[in-house]
Amino acid sequence: MTQYDDYDGLNLILVEDETLVSMDLEATLEEYGHRVIGVASHVERALEHIAGAGRALDAVLLDLTLAGQSARPVAERLERQGVPYVMVTGLDEAQVRQQGFSGRYVPKPYHPEAVREALSSVAADLGRARRVRQAPSPVAPLAVTSPYCASSSCVSR
């Protein structure tokens, strides 16, 4: 299992066009306690999975070249929706950054520990974001007028 602040794993979509790599990555992700909620081998299917997952989606593992086609449309959709992605690619990181990809980077051939570290970082970021979104806003106590309380110091919480 992975070590996250608020939950024990991520809901992930895996976007990879090489079947053996996809199967191996899926097994690795599940071994680390994550849930693979969709697998896609081309851009259109990846976009369908992302749309279908809605708010249940935590992150995406994304190969940047899918059957000779760039995964840029997938990355752009994820960035617009604020969904983090981890690039698992054979492309050089400098080349990837020049193309405008902003996700975390794991080179192929991938090492399971590198994937685990990238997803731990994503989970930590999501944990912080969830804590911020769920933090209760400070509420001032309400003054209560009651026949049982004659003083102005009666406060309801």
TrEMBL record:
Any GO BP annotation: phosphorelay signal transduction system
Instruction: Spell out the coiled coil positions from the record.
Output: none
Q: Which UniProt keywords apply?
A: Phosphoprotein
Q: Source organism's superkingdom? A: Bacteria
Residues annotated as domain Response regulatory: 11-123
Residues modified as 4-aspartylphosphate: 63
| Gene3D superfamilies membership | 3.40.50.2300
User: Record's PANTHER family?
Assistant: PROTEIN-GLUTAMATE METHYLESTERASE_PROTEIN-GLUTAMINE GLUTAMINASE 1, STRESS RESPONSE REGULATOR PROTEIN 1
* Name of the protein in its database record: Two-component system regulatory protein
Organism name: Oceanicola granulosus (strain ATCC BAA-861 / DSM 15982 / KCTC 12143 / HTCC2516)
